[in-house]
């Protein structure tokens, strides 16, 4: 059983009212097709090599398409001392609920 904490999409939406660290671990094409505003792209396969780019001084929210890859990334990040929290429902749930996304390779 995973010990990775999770939040739902409603909670993420409320948190986005303030600056937060949100990492999208989907593949390049998935990210550019549409991502949650402010989500920084670090593909799952590159997370171990790029862990130093992820702040460790506060919570880090991790999102993927539905929650599987982000759960794995969050679990790994937690072993590195990062307070990583999985976003259950992922970007697919975000889109399905009618919330807006940003297209392209920029976080905003």
Describe the structure in your own words.
The chain is of the alpha/beta class and 108 residues long. The protein has one domain: Rhodanese-like domain (Oxidized Rhodanese, domain 1). The chain is built from five helices and five strands; from the N terminus they run E-H-E-H-E-H-E-H-E-H. The N and C termini lie far apart (35 Å).
- The name of the CATH superfamily reads Rhodanese-like domain
| Number of DSSP helical runs | 5
- Name given to the CATH architecture: 3-Layer(aba) Sandwich
Specify the overall morphology: globular
Largest sheet: 5 strands, parallel
Low-confidence stretches are: none
Rg, alpha carbons: 12 Å
Let me know the average pLDDT: 96
Q: What percent strand?
A: 5-15%
**Named CATH topology:** Oxidized Rhodanese, domain 1
Strand element count: 5
In short:
It contains 5 helices and 5 strands; from the N terminus they run E-H-E-H-E-H-E-H-E-H.
Give the topology, please:
Blueprint: E1 6-7, H1 9-15, E2 21-24, H2 28-33, E3 40-41, H3 47-50, E4 60-63, H4 68-79, E5 84-87, H5 90-96
Provide the descriptors you would attach to this structure in a database record.
alpha/beta, five-stranded parallel beta sheet, Oxidized Rhodanese, domain 1, 108 residues, 5 helices, globular
